[in-house]
Amino acid sequence: MIQSYKKIEFLEQIAILENCISRNFKLQSELEARGFDRDSLIYRHNCSIAPNFSIYKTPDNYQFKTSEIPVVSFFSGAGGLDLGFKYAGFEHLASVEINPIFCQTLRKNFANSVILGPPECSGDLRDRDEIINILKSKIGINFPFEGVFFGGPPCQSFSIAANQRFSKAGENFKRTGFLQAEYGNLLFEFVWYICEFKPRVFLIENVSGLLSVDGGKQINAALEMLENKGYTVTEPTVLNAADYGVPQNRSRLFLCGWRTPAKFNFPEAEPLKVPCYKALEKPLINVENHITRQHKAESIMRYIELKYGERDRLGRVDRLDPNLPAKTVIAGGSKGGGRSHLHPLIPRTLSVRESARLQTFPDSFIFCGCPARQFTQVGNAVPPLLALKLARAISTKIYGIKSE
Predict the structure, then answer these.
(1) Residue 239 phi/psi, 5° resolution?
(2) Is 103 a residue of the active site?
(3) Contact, 130 vs 193, CB < 8 A?
(4) Does pLDDT of 170 surpass 70?
(5) C-alpha dihedral over 299, 301, 305, 311, to 10 degrees?
(6) Which of 192, 206, 265, 401 is deepest in the core (most CB within 10 A)?
């Protein structure tokens, strides 16, 4: 019987790995024969974990009275922003999403909301007549809408990380931004819906590269359109999720606009950072989306030599430092799987559930699709805890609802 988490002696581990490599044995079988599993493996270098008094939280650690402020989500993905607003007490009416698998995830986790997407409708904001008809007739949204529109238009065109996957000599290296027809103009589609329905508040999320693409001309054009419709709009502001209780360094651009007399500013950064081990120390018992990769012995042999924060160049994965917030959880390409980081204490990559914990999704939140697409959803999402704190700031400063 396998004894999970029973740790193996390092020299015995080396012998097992070398035997598997030389004789082409399956590592899993060799470990099981000795009463171990993959989580029994250890690194050579393990420094002590520094004391830290921060507390790891997800949105389900908070309880706010329902405010009845309605919200509609666009480019919803797996629903990171949606979840934060929901736990902050907002009334989640609908999500608009084009990806069929992401829609499955939304329907599973937001059973009382309308999901505008396949197979019921296209979920494509460029199909304006279809989307507007559903928003007006099925959901009953009127002009002006007294709730919140929020969303993160697809950001591949603006992402520096995405372009680092390509050769500098190749055509794909340039950050084509708004010139990229498929994704680049979806920001303006979102702006069009804001102008059409005139929500009391809107929140836009994107990668920080949106600020520099085209020398800032396009983002300034979008801001001008919104200001001409009577909105007061914040300066484009880059927030790091690690400054708001998320155990992960993740910098994203946010814009907030409102059309009523109010003074709004983004929440102030919190001084105490949550290290990534806090998200990973709770046992993973009877949870969904926790399937770990079956790494070959050759890969494990390389991983075990890494120190905290070091990268395996061949596999292009980093060992996380347990004493620090994690490096950014990424989504991976649309045709390939997300590439997770290496667990700080176990020489293997993180599971979808462990990556979701770094994003502050509750363990009860289920991701649909194959593991590769689950990683995509986790990596694309706004951390729900950050979303909750942004939602509370909007509720308090724009709607005048006292914080509880």
Answers:
(1) -115, 140
(2) no
(3) no
(4) no
(5) -10
(6) 206
Q: Where are the domains of the chain?
A: 1-42, 56-404
Q: What is the pTM of this model?
A: 0.91
CA-CA distance, 232 to 105, in Å (whole number)? Answer: 34
pLDDT digits (tens, 9 = 90+) for 258-314: 999 999 999 999 999 999 999 999 999 999 999 999 999 999 999 999 999 999 999
Query: Does 3.40.50.150 match the CATH number of domain 56-404?
Result: yes
Residues 23-51 have a mean pLDDT of: 94
Tokens 């171990």 belong to: 36
Cα–Cα distance measured from residue 6 to residue 329, given in angstroms and rounded to the nearest whole number: 28
Alpha carbons within 13 A on the beta-carbon side of 217: 5
- Looking up tokens 């929901």 gives 86
Q: Peptide bond preceding 144: is omega within 30 degrees of 0, i.e. cis?
A: yes
CA gap 82, 94 in Å, rounded:
9
DSSP string, 275-313: PTHHHHSS---S-SS-------HHHHHHHTTPPTT-EET
CA 303 – CA 340 distance, rounded (Å): 14
Q: Which of 20, 103, 121, 155 is catalytic?
A: 155
Per-residue confidence at 177, pLDDT binned at 50, 70, 90?
A: very low
Can you spell out the DSSP letters for 346-370? SSSBPPHHHHHHHTT--TT----S-
